Write the structure tokens for this entry.
Amino acid sequence: MRYVLGIHLGATRATAAVSRYQGGPWGPPEVVTLSAGAPWVDAVVYVSRDSDLLVGQAALHRAPAEPERIARSPLHRTGDPVPFVLGDVSYPAESLAAALIGWVADRVAEMEGSQPERIVVTHPPGWSAFRRGLLHEALDQAQLPGVLALPSPIAAAESCLWNQDIEVGKAVAVCAIGGEHVETAVLRRGPRGFELLNHAGGEGEAGSRLDDLLLRHVLPRAGIDENDPGAMARLRSACIAAKERLSQVPEVIVTEEVYLNREEFEHLARPVLSAAVSGLERLASTVPPEQLACATLAGGTARIPLATRLAETMLSCPVAVDDDPGTALCRGAALAAQPRHEPAPPAQAETSGTLVTGSHELPAVFGQADEELEPPPPRPPVEITPLEPPKRRFSLARKGGSSTTERDEDR
């Protein structure tokens, strides 16, 4: 069956969603299970001495024995002049990001039985044309030519539009609260889609800060030696799981010795979430109230009920939060990837330099049509080994053959 694929590669996790062609309209975005029954995979890459690639939990399982071969959050380091050094080989961050995107695309293709017609990948809204160009080149080398890039706030707005009526000409304020970053933006809905008006990225504390606070809160009661790295890592994992469970239940067991209720957790989380929503409030205040249709929260940390309550209290506009804000960005990317039924007028297509998709226009290549490719920033004298990206696990299937793969990540 024909389908399009949306991928959000965050700082801590990657998510994906597909939209299938149903013979008339395209179907709703459906989140893909990427590993061990979860709708996400950790944004962690392991590269072996033979350039074989492991992702997510399979990569993390190798971390204790071979920490020097682990790369975390490669997309957000795209354009960094300092490469990842895995073993004795240097990899530009964009090559590892492309390898992770390729892993997700291949995993989905294996489940769907065919390749997607189009892939849309989100990126931070502040990326320059240079950074988008680097990722575009790396994706070409990873056998993924023609992937379209979409600023993540537009993906969040597309996901919001699926559930919320936003009139043409009205604005929407977006706050994406992820594992490491908080991004806020204001967008206007035009006749063909959303236009990014203003944004602020990388400000404030996010999910990992809550993990730190929760760890320190329960540590005195946990009865473990904080100088034991293994015990501390297990406790941190238990705290992360407890944080996520408290979005759904009023009380959880962190360890055999420690119980935690939602009230305790919200007391810790309030300053962090208040700061994130305050950033959204400042950006939303630049829009005349009569033009602001709503605000929406996205990202895994937005699952915490307190985030919605704070937004509803601090903002003067309606607040629309998806039932699963943690996958809102990949679903919005899948919606943006849907081809339009009516083709764009030839004259406009020749002059705009854009590709019409979904309900808005996406850049045909990584950047707006009116941008000129800027020169790279000066690099320090770091020698990077000119190697191809790590091998993709299901590349045989892409080339038309068959492939038998080990499901390391499910073990």
